[in-house]
Design a protein that fits this description.
Structural class of chain B: alpha+beta
Distance between the termini of chain A: 37 Å
Order of helices and strands of chain A: HHEHEE
Number of strands of chain A: 3
Number of domains of chain B: 3
Largest interface: A-B, 36 and 55 residues
Low-confidence stretches of chain A: none
Strand order of the largest sheet of chain A: 2-3
Largest sheet of chain B: 9 strands, mixed
Mean pLDDT of chain B: 91
CATH class of the domain at 1-41 in chain A: Mainly Alpha
Shape of chain B: elongated
Oligomer: heterodimer
Helix content of chain A: 25-40%
Helix content of chain B: 25-40%
Mean pLDDT of chain A: 89
CATH superfamily of the domain at 1-41 in chain A: Glu-tRNAGln amidotransferase C subunit, N-terminal domain
Strand content of chain A: 5-15%
């Protein structure tokens, strides 16, 4: 096992997730399976193969700087659990 | 002067003057109704695809070329993951190991000495939304209009050896951005933001000290004060045999000090990875050359040219090139009248004073270059005196009328008629025999008294040079 309990809990913390004992075991298993798969890929000899970050061959997908219609504000706020004066209300974040 | 070396590196975020956001067509303008400039792309809805705004790349290349950077032919966008309410997607799209520009520099000048400050990298990224904290309730309000507004992040090398150099670097960088027309440079409103990394080490020691990061400095003044404070704080700790703690600190304007943000978050665990929604961007030579050929004259080149071409002192060249508009105004005047120093003097005093008093920008100034130079011609031909001209200028600036018109209607024309002045002086000498006697006995400082009398008699309209010489002549004959 490459990934430890501690690492799973750390990543969960960064994602604001609380895991119970059962979930922790499940993620430990799944994350390790992913890492094992990556290890397998890492065994392939890629010397001389250029780095690829995308499967398409596009290299210049650009748009012009021309304004388009934004969505209605109601749509922007539709998923917000709480709103006030057009703004989304969230629990206080203190810097 | 100090036993310590100061090491500062600066990170600047410049909001770009594009019409639209970096990855969608929503307006990038500030000041719109909250959350009205949003769409599924900038709100981070599932299933949407961001598409890069070509203007952002162009602006980035412009700055890169202006600061001597190497432009990357191949660009990759990455996701920087963190969880904060101002970030609708849960990640910021930025560039990580393949920034647009690398290894540039800009030149600053401190007390006549030039110094190069290295620029490590310039990359493109999106801004986050705006967080407004309620003062009374434990809630914050989110406005996502700013989410997705394009930014350039400009990272300097740790070449900056003190707060004064940091401020000089920022001023130069801001001026370049404004000359390139890619950022409005407004620090108070956050379109030009700065974070600093600072550390201090005993002189001569090679290893860097432990650094702190400074945020929330929204003016040049605050940058200077915050850095001064940190320098003193670090040195104080080191002198007492202590250890500086690595942390992120805010400049507290009200308390005039920095304070720790005490973030428990392991904020640097950003888990960057290439953004699968965006394809790599290839920039070809032709595009770079096209942008290079359209670059305007930069502030440093303009300063140099103003000294060489117009024979202006360094100070004048510096003031006149603060903004492109002011430099253009000067040059338009100089095209109409070959008297650069005189034009410079009037711009540095009266023009800047009026802009300041009326709280306007140059395009709103009612005194056009043609009007200013016409007024200067009235001075050189002796029609009006300098002090009259100041009155005329103020009137031009408030009414927009020409100098000629104002001189006519106010009867401001100065008296340069020798016979008329002779007659008046004659009368003044007759009315003040005691003073005449004293003057002739050697109390020559009384000259000012007689000139004053003449000015009073002419309501200030006597040509001052002529008045002086006539009075002197008559007293000494």
């Amino acid at each position: 096992m490459k990934i430890t309990d501690q690492e799973v809990l750390h990543v969960a913390g960064l994602s604001r997730l609380k895991l119970d004992e059962h979930e922790l075991k499940r993620f430990l298993r799944e994350l390790n399976a992913i890492v094992d798969y990556m290890d397998m890929l890492a065994q392939i000899d890629t010397a001389g193969v250029p780095e690829t970050v995308h499967a398409t061959m596009l290299t210049r997908a650009l748009r012009q700087d021309i304004p388009e219609r934004s969505q209605e504000r109601a749509a922007a706020l539709a998923n917000a659990p709480s709103q006030r004066e057009g703004k989304i209300v969230v629990p206080r974040v203190i810097e | 002067m100090r036993d310590y070396d100061i090491v500062i590196g600066l990170e600047v975020h410049a909001q770009l003057l594009t019409e639209t956001k970096i990855f969608c067509g929503c307006s990038a303008r500030a000041g719109l109704a909250p959350n009205s400039s949003t769409c599924p792309v900038c709100m981070g809805m599932p299933g949407v695809l961001p598409v890069l705004n070509s203007k952002v790349v162009e602006f980035g290349i412009r700055l890169g070329l202006a600061t001597g950077c190497t432009i990357a032919r191949r660009n990759v966008f990455a996701r920087k993951n963190y969880f904060y309410p101002d970030l609708p997607k849960g990640y910021q799209i930025t560039q990580y190991d393949r920034p647009l520009c690398e290894r540039g520099f800009l030149e600053i000048e401190i007390a006549g000495t030039k110094k190069r400050i290295g620029i490590t990298r310039i990359h493109m990224e999106e801004d986050a939304g705006k967080n407004i904290h309620d003062e009374h309730e434990p809630v914050s309000y989110m406005d996502f209009n700013r989410a997705g507004v394009p930014l350039l992040e400009i990272v300097s090398e740790p070449d900056i050896a003190g707060p004064d150099e940091a401020v000089a670097y920022l001023k130069e960088l801001r001026q370049i951005l404004m000359f390139l027309d890619i950022c409005d440079g407004n620090m108070e409103e956050g379109s030009f933001r700065c974070d600093a990394n600072i550390s201090v080490k005993p002189k001569g020691v090679a290893a860097f000290g432990i650094r702190t990061e400074l945020k929330n400095m929204n003016s040049f003044r605050n940058v200077g004060k915050a850095l001064e404070f940190e320098v003193d704080r670090h040195i104080g700790i080191l002198k007492a045999g202590g250890r500086v703690e690595q942390d992120t600190r805010l400049w507290d304007v009200a308390a005039n000090r920095t304070r720790s943000m005490r973030s428990k978050e392991e904020s640097h665990d950003y888990r960057y990875f290439p953004d699968p929604d965006l394809v790599p961007l290839e920039v070809d030579e032709a595009w770079i050359e096209e942008i290079r050929s359209s670059l305007p004259e930069l502030p440093s080149a303009k300063r140099k040219r103003f000294q060489e071409e117009y024979g202006l002192p360094a100070y004048d060249a510096d003031v006149l090139t603060q903004t492109k508009a002011l430099a253009d105004y000067f040059e338009q005047c100089s095209e109409l009248l070959d008297s650069p120093k005189e034009i410079s003097n009037w711009i540095m005093t009266e023009v800047l004073r009026v802009l300041n008093e009326q709280d306007i920008a140059l395009p709103q100034l009612k005194v056009t270059p043609g009007m200013l130079t016409a007024m200067l011609t009235l001075i050189s031909t002796g029609t009006i005196s300098i002090s009259m001209a100041k009155e005329v200028f103020a009137e031009m600036a408030s009414s927009g009328r020409t100098a000629e018109d104002i001189v006519q209607s106010k009867g401001l024309r100065q008296i340069s008629d020798e016979d008329e002045l002779l007659g008046l002086v004659q009368g003044i000498l007759e009315n003040n025999p005691a003073e005449v006697k004293k003057y002739r006995q050697g109390k020559t400082q009384l000259l000012g008294f007689f000139v004053g009398q003449l000015m009073k008699a002419t309501k200030g309209k006597a040509n001052p040079n002529l008045a002086n010489s006539i009075i002197k002549e008559m007293l000494e004959s």
